[in-house]
Specification:
GO terms for molecular function: rRNA (adenine) methyltransferase activity. Keywords: Methyltransferase, S-adenosyl-L-methionine, Transferase. The protein has 263 residues and is an alpha/beta fold. The protein has helices at residues 2-48, 52-64, 67-78, 81-85, 88-92, 166-178, 194-197, 204-211; strands at residues 103-108, 122-128, 137-138, 153-157, 186-192, 216-218, 224-225, 229-236. Strands 1, 2, 3, 4, 5, 6, 7 and 8 form an eight-stranded mixed sheet that branches. Residues 15-21 have low confidence and may be disordered.
Length: 263
């Protein structure tokens, strides 16, 4: 009887701990996503601000929130478990064939350099606004000056969804496409699945049509969708001459998100 009672108490404690951890995770997600939303709103205000007083006010609020470092922490915590554990490098290398010359790879928004284990055949330039590893270059991609450098692979993994402005998302893709060395080079884009599956304004078809403006075509056999992520391998061809860039509602409903890209 005593042994049975102890087992029941043990199971009860485990159940309570499980509920607590689940609740703690839920609270963490809610808090992180709230901070991310406010940060994006502040970025938009900062982008459009013309008055020095308003600029100072926005920057002061960003500092109060903990600055870019706190935003990055929230970005990591705000991912789903699947996205938080996702390492794009492990997927990217499955799409590449080893060759005699090293691949020149640019990883944008990389808190750490996930390609170091593959340095024998991949020469990786990893960059981030506030890197967490000494091997990562502290650099704003939008002001990056590559000179004559071009890359065989450019990776935008779970970074476009954290760019606050839809116009800057399109600009980021265009700049990345311009850095591709030739028609055999690839651009890797990884997005949360909801960005295309649950957006009011964007779906797979409109996303592909927009990419064509920069001459980007999906390599469909290599593209994939998981339960939480949408993964794209793109090659550069001839840019499309015209594109309807007007934002249109293609899905209705209060549960939709507002993710969009201006191509």
């Amino acid at each position: 009887m005593e042994s049975s009672s102890r087992r029941k108490i043990s199971r009860s404690r485990k159940l309570k701990r499980s509920k607590f951890l689940h609740m703690d995770r839920a609270q963490c997600l809610k808090s992180s996503r709230s901070l991310i939303t406010e940060w994006h709103c502040l970025e938009k205000r900062l982008l459009n601000a013309k008055c020095p007083r308003e600029i100072a006010s926005v920057q002061e609020r960003m500092d109060e929130m903990g600055g870019l470092g706190r935003y990055q922490d929230a970005s990591i915590a705000g991912h789903s478990k699947a996205a938080a554990k996702f390492n794009s490098a492990k997927w990217v290398i499955t799409c590449l064939r080893r060759r005699q010359d090293k691949y020149r790879l640019l990883d944008v928004g990389a808190l750490s350099n996930h390609y170091l284990p593959y340095s024998s055949w991949i020469d990786c330039t990893a960059m981030d606004l506030k890197p967490r590893h000494s091997s990562v270059l502290e650099q704003d991609f939008f002001t990056y000056e590559p000179g004559q450098n071009r890359f065989d692979v450019v990776v935008l993994s779970l970074i476009l969804n954290f760019v606050a402005c839809k116009a800057k998302r399109g600009l980021m893709i265009r700049l990345a496409a311009d850095l591709l060395a030739d028609s055999e080079s690839i651009l890797v884009i990884v997005l949360p699945k909801a960005c295309l599956d649950n957006s009011r304004y964007l779906d797979n078809e409109r996303f592909i049509n927009g990419l064509e403006v920069y001459g980007l075509q999906p390599v469909l056999p290599l593209c994939k969708v998981t339960a939480k992520l949408s993964l794209w391998i793109l090659k550069k061809g001839v840019p499309k001459q015209s594109h309807d860039s007007r934002q249109k509602i293609i899905r209705s409903g209060s549960n939709r998100n507002n993710f969009s890209i201006t191509f």
